[in-house]
Amino acid sequence: MDWAEVTAIATSILALGLLGAFGAAIFGAQQVREARKSREAQMAAEFFRRWNEESLVEARRLFARFKSAEELRDAFAAYVAADAPEAYVLYRELDFFEQLAALESQGAFDLELIKVLLGRTLIERWEKWWPALHQAHGPGVYPLFEGLVRKLS
Q1: Structural contact between residues 129 and 94, judged by C-beta atoms closer than 8 angstroms
Q2: Distance between CA atoms of 58 and 88, rounded to whole angstroms?
Q3: Which of 74, 99, 98 is nearest to 86 (CA)?
């Protein structure tokens, strides 16, 4: 028995084993990436489905009544001060955007996906909401929504 041949065969088998392990690791990482993308897509579809649920449609309709940020500011401040039901209807939209921003900040939503689906709308909403929120609650309310808008701007 020639030890050089045994060593060469063992080295070849080891190299093939390492190559197979490396290939399996790459395949596994690819599967994990694909599963994550699939999970993100499902979560996004579910989250954006909520946008068309009756409670958020009602909030959007109420929001649409205000033609300017100033109109919204005055009405929202009055609703909040009176603890009116309209305030809670409007909070639904704000909470939706805050939750979206929280999910994005934790990596559950891709910023580029948000940009494609809601980018300009989100920015315009914040610009209209900001005076109302500042008037009713002071600065710093809905910080994740505000931060997400900054990332999109």
Answers
A1: yes
A2: 11
A3: 74
Q: Residue holding tokens 């996004």?
A: 44
Q: At what angle do helices 111-137 and 85-105 cross, to 10 degrees?
A: 140
Going from N- to C-terminal start, the domains of the chain cover 1-37, 51-152
First to last CA, the chain: 73
Compute φ and ψ for 142, nearest 5 degrees: 55, 55
Distance CA 63, CA 94 (A): 11
Contact 115, 152 (CB under 8 A): yes
Provide Rg for the chain, Cα atoms.
Answer: 26
19-75 confidence digits (pLDDT tens) = 777 777 776 667 767 767 777 778 778 877 888 999 999 999 999 999 999 999 999
d(C-alpha 21, C-alpha 33), whole Å: 18
Which string of b and e fits 58-90 if b means at least 16 CB within 10 Å?
ebbebbeebeeeeebbebbbebbeeeeebbebb
In the numeric block, which tokens belong to residue 70?
């100033």
Q: How confident is the model at residue 79 (pLDDT cuts 50, 70, 90)?
A: very high
